[in-house]
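Preliminary data (for renewal application), magnesium ion complex.
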Amino acid sequence: MQVQFITSAPQQTAELGQCFAPWARGGDIFILTGDLGGGKTTFVAGLAKGLGVEETVSSPSFTLINEYDIGDLKLIHADLYRLAGIEDIEDIGMEHYLYQPHNIVCIEWGEKMGTCMPSEYMTISFNYTEGEEYGRTIVFKSCSDYNDKKLIEFNKMASRKGLL
Ligand code: ADP
Ligand code: MG
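Predicted structure:
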């Protein structure tokens, strides 16, 4: 299933991330795709805030992976934009972060995982909304019962809050 939002300011995208925080659990993997400047990092910053991260979240485009402690959990924020090929994914040890019950993993440009792509994940795409400088179309897609349930609940909460 999929759920679509349109935001019209960076703060709204961050707020969407913050509101999604209760549905992010240890072991979860979020593949963030879409346009450069689409709002992926802005969303993760909001998600981090919602998870209780106090540090400022910045783009991991140079460090490739940033880690933030959240009690017993960790938010792992990766950005594969600069990755040249599949060998690089192995070099940075991406697979060691996946499926760990204490890791919530967000991977910008996650589609570059190729054959290293995990089997269970949720995709969130961020694209410019045509004709609107500050408009972004954000689509959450699930391909499993586990993530469908999250999206059903998130959708209910989002419409209650007027985010849809
Ligand atoms: P990405 O990580 O996808 O490349 P960023 O979150 O780093 O994108 O940057 C998004 C840029 O677009 C920021 O400069 C932000 O101010 C701007 N922007 C404008 N409108 C929005 C919006 N509705 N949501 C998110 N970012 C927006
Ligand atoms: Mg980014």
